[in-house]
Structure formats: C-alpha cells, structure tokens
Design goal:
A five-stranded parallel beta sheet has the order 2-3-1-4-5. 32% of the residues are buried. The protein has a single domain, classed as 3-Layer(aba) Sandwich (Rossmann fold). The longest helix has 20 residues. The protein is an alpha/beta fold and 195 residues long. Bound molecules: adenosine-5'-diphosphate. Adenosine-5'-diphosphate (ADP) binds next to α2 and α3.
Length: 195
C-alpha cells in the first residue's frame, strides 16, 4: 500500500494538496483535524474535550488522537493506500502510527513536508478565517498554533528522516505548481517500489 504523510505547519496547504493527491492516486484520506471537527459538530464527549484544546490552539492529547486513528484504520479495507493529513503531530504519535501499521504489515512510504515561511502562513490563515468559520483561525490562536507546531510537531521531521522516507516540498507558488512537485516525488517512489 502507498501510505503517505502530508506534513507541515498550520496553513501550509496540507488539506488542499491532500484533495488533489487522493483524486490522482486513488488514496483514502485520514485528516485528524476533519475527524475532530466532525466530533465537535456532533457534540460527542470526544468532541467536547477536543474543542477545549483546539480553541486554545493546543494539541489534543495523544491518547485521544491515537484511539481515534485506530478506529479509523480498522474501517479501511482494500484501499490502495492512505494519506495521513495532520497526523502524526508529535513524535509519540509517529511511534504509535508505526506500531498500528505494523499490525496490518504496512508502513509509511513517504513523508511530504510542505515548507512555507511563517509570515505566509499567518497571512493565509487570516485570509481563510474570513470564510472558514473555524474557531482557531484568528490571530492569537494562529500564533499559538505556529508556536506549538515548532515546539511539539517539528521534531517529527527528524523521526522520518531517520526512517528514510522524508521529502521536503517547496510550499510556495500556485496550488498546481506545488502539486506538480508532489506528483514527481510520489511517482518516483512508486517507480522505486515496483522495481
Ligand atoms: P491546521 O493544520 O490548519 O492547524 P488541522 O485541521 O489539521 O489544521 O487541525 C486543527 C486542530 O486540531 C489543531 O490545531 C489541533 O488542536 C487539533 N489536531 C488535529 N490533528 C491533531 C493531532 N494529530 N494531534 C493533536 N491535535 C490535533
């Protein structure tokens, strides 16, 4: 299976690029942010807990996220691969993902890191906040999310560099331009796999 992680700071374009990758390569999409927002909308207990963290720009605790992921992975059958969007966000989650995939005799094939300058992230998220209706797209929470990313999430990069599946992607330019960079990297991996 082609298991790909799309990684990057808030506002780096993970969701946008995921949609395009899914369409082109026929992968299943797991976005922890989307799963959490669905829980919040349905007013479940998990949703209520998650909202208290998300609204402050903090990460939802690892045990909640990992449990949610385990459920979601069990539901997937006969897919060509999975794109993980917004997960793993801590080194602990990266270890848990490795463990979960190993139960299905699977592993992460590729980690795509979208590299975008901080000023650009803030500008994009403020712009998105005008229409997204997301409680976390306001200046104070955006700045907090970026700090949390640098402290807790960026170390995940080294984890995947060590695993030998890291690829940096320049995250500037138009959506299609970035997507073309991603496609070249994925296609290269697919060719290597089929050798
Ligand atoms: P973005 O990357 O634009 O911040 P997401 O939709 O991926 O947006 O995530 C929104 C929020 O949901 C995060 O700020 C965080 O609070 C929570 N969240 C999403 N995924 C995770 C995760 N893997 N671990 C912990 N918290 C998460």
């Amino acid at each position: 299976m082609l298991n790909v992680i799309i990684f990057g700071p808030p506002g780096s374009g993970k969701g946008t690029q995921s949609e395009k990758i899914i369409e082109k390569f026929g992968l299943a999409h797991i976005s922890t942010g989307e799963l959490l927002r669905a829980e919040i909308k349905s007013q479940s207990e998990l949703g209520k807990t998650a909202a208290s963290y998300i609204d402050r720009g903090e990460l939802v605790p690892d045990n909640i996220i990992i449990g949610m992921l385990e459920c979601k992975l069990r539901e997937l059958n006969g897919v060509r691969g999975v794109i993980f969007d917004g997960f793993p966000r801590t080194v602990e989650q990266a270890y848990a993902l490795k463990e979960m995939l190993s139960h299905h005799e699977e592993k992460v094939c590729l980690m795509l890191n979208l590299e975008v300058a901080t000023e650009e992230l803030v500008a994009r998220l403020l712009q998105r906040g005008k229409t997204s209706g997301r409680s976390d797209d306001n200046l104070e929470t955006i700045e907090k999310r970026i700090r949390v990313y640098e402290q807790q999430t960026a170390p995940v990069i080294d984890y995947y560099k060590n695993e030998g599946c890291y690829e940096g992607i320049a995250g500037f330019g138009g959506i299609d331009e970035i997507f073309n960079r991603i496609c070249s990297v994925i296609e290269k991996r697919i060719t290597e796999f089929s050798k």
